[in-house]
Please model this.
Amino acid sequence: MPDIHPFRRLRLWTLKEAGDQGQILVITCNFCRVTHRYIPDDLVKLCGDITLDRVLTRFKCEGCGKKHYLRMELHFPNGSEYGHLKVRRLTEIRTVTIPIWADDVLH
Model:
């Protein structure tokens, strides 16, 4: 049986399924060489249960602010990495309320 292309596999795999399998998402910016690791269950809280090929559309690099240089990999942590591997965790989600004013005539 022929192997499925990796990009097609990402279309079939969701964040919830990756979290159930114990995978970690590794997102790297190829422009400024910054790498962050995320737990899929935290990303489900932030952007819903989307397929892995759509995850990078929700991100931009915090260092350079660019979206087009991001690359994502799936990582299966082995036993020796538990307790030592740095992972970004979601602590809270803030919603900002911004008032929008319009000038009108007094009636």
Strands lie at 24-29, 34-38, 70-75. Residues 1-5 have pLDDT under 50 and may be disordered.
